[in-house]
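Our consortium's second objective concerns turning raw sequence data into structural hypotheses that experimental partners can test. To show how far this objective has progressed, the report includes one record in full. It was chosen at random from the queue rather than selected for favorable results. The single chain below, 323 residues long, was entered without modification.
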Amino acid sequence: MGKPLRILAIDGGGIRGIIPAVVLAAIEKQSGKPICELFDLIAGTSTGGILALGMVKPGPQAGKPQYAATDMLELYFKEGTTIFPQSVWREIKTAKYTLDEKYPSDGVESALQKYFGDSRLKDALTNTLITSYEIEMRMPWLFRSDRALKNPGFDFPMWQVARATSAAPTYFEPERIDKADKSGFFALIDGGMYANNPAMVAYAEALHLAPGSDVVVASLGTGTHTRPIPYADAKHWGLLGWAKSLLDVVFDGVSRTTDYQVHQLLPPDGARQRYYRFQLSLTIASDEMDNTDPENLNDLKEQAEQLVTTQQAEIASLCAQLV
């Protein structure tokens, strides 16, 4: 049997991207290779899209990535408060964020420009797929590096792709990306609205690229919600009451449903595992996407390290197939 088509999919989850970043670092350490050399297709949504692009951004050495997974892990600790700045004045000005998005865009954009510079989607070191949603055409939007290579009209700066996939409604304003021919623009929001876990999208893309191929999928989560939504509270909620919780429900529900679907589609082939899901329950760290409190960042990292320890055998099994 030849080598399977190797797919990596990374969930959305804001600052909780610390969790898949730790898992990616463990995979690089175990395999001794950068992520872009281990997978044939890398897909990401929101914070997972940022990580995916970081793994495929070319560095000064030809054919080699600029960042290791540990570098992308540092992004959350170094830039977290830049991306999610806490401001009492903004809370007052926006009537507790009911009149405008929670965060201004300049912080996240400056962080993404710092990390991705002038690199473009076509420069990706391996086939890359990033999810978003176009709100004027009302359709899912997939940024694909293979399409960017063939058609300049679909090639965009990596930082803008990262900004578009992570434009979570109520948190950030949509991203506007001008069309190459100046005929208009794309208006984009977070791909988590339909594919917070992009594993199914990535699997479908792989079947399109290489019909009939044997595949192995590694899917990295950002932690499942454990806090209940009390019925006594929710039964009285209207539009404003549901605004924040509804987004969490959508993201969490989509991720878990996709996990179930891919698990059913890719059962083990004899003794060989074809689907790996690295996920944890947020029992210690906060499930909030924008909690940049230093203690919470450390809790996220600690829980992720515990996940790596708990699933070390699965990481070793995955790496054996990847290399």
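The partners drew two points from this record. DSSP finds 14 helices and eight strands in the chain. The CA atoms of residues 195 and 254 lie 6 Å apart. Both points have been shared with the crystallography group to help prioritize constructs.
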